[in-house]
Amino acid sequence: MIRKGVWVIVLSILFVGCKAKKRTTYGDRQKDRGKESVRIKKAHKEDNGLYPLPEDTGKFVRFEISSISEYIETFSEIAQFEMKAYGIPASITLAQGLLESGFGRGELAKKTNNHFGIKCHTGWKGDYDFHDDDERGECFRKYNHPMYSYRDHSIFLANRSRYAFLFNLPINDYKRWAKGLKQAGYATDKRYPQKLIQLIEQHRLYKYDKVVIREGYGKKDMAAIPERSIYIVKKGDTLYSISRRYLVSVDELKRWNGIIGNTISIGQELFINSTQINK
Q1: 74 burial level (CB within 10 Å; 0-12, 13-18, 19+)
Q2: CATH for 226-279, among 3.10.350.10, 1.10.220.30, 3.40.50.300, 3.40.190.120?
Q3: Which tens digit of pLDDT belongs to each residue from 220-273?
Q4: Coil, strand, or helix at residue 199?
Q5: Which of 40, 115, 123, 138 would be 101's cystine partner, CB 3.0–4.6 Å?
């Protein structure tokens, strides 16, 4: 499922000649057990592109990543499989993983396997740990394996209404996905979209999207997006006036763009999921 180390863990193949074997370590709970291997049942691909996660043995598995290129090599395939199953561009998933986890070397990632900075939030029943972020001692989700973090990231975006408008975007438009994540409130950093885009373009992460699209995933969704789908807010515009222009409701306009409240600003890009233009 994942190249090298992670692929080996999922499929229970012998760890011969794989870099991830050399770097795989266990958390403090496992130090007294020596080099105990992780035995995981073989995972089979499902027809919908969703791969089952490895069995949770209760052991905290950590991957010691030494570089950005190694992080990409290790997690690119799972990002592609998550793209097939949930419709989130692999380039976005990888860029977020790189940025939020410090390419797997950040303190939070090392102690929680949380590669996307997802906080506990109401209803979280899994393991957790505390980490200083926007505030001191915030609660973050903790996983026994990085793969659980990748799957939870997909579920997190897919199941929250404030991110729903992202799934109306073309699956190969990583720039608008990056801007949309910030707009929906994923991060407080004003330069979050630019940082994601820079990572994607510098390391050519968009190539992983192209592979998935060539396999037939996402084409229908992309075809459904109208060509004239972006409106730039001008002086005097309101959500109501724009909604009348495109013959959509204000609620739809807000949902597509992750807008909370009724405030828009001049120069803001609004996604319009409609070809009906009232000239």
Answers
A1: buried
A2: 3.10.350.10
A3: 444 333 344 678 899 999 998 988 887 778 887 877 776 777 888 898 888 776
A4: helix
A5: 115
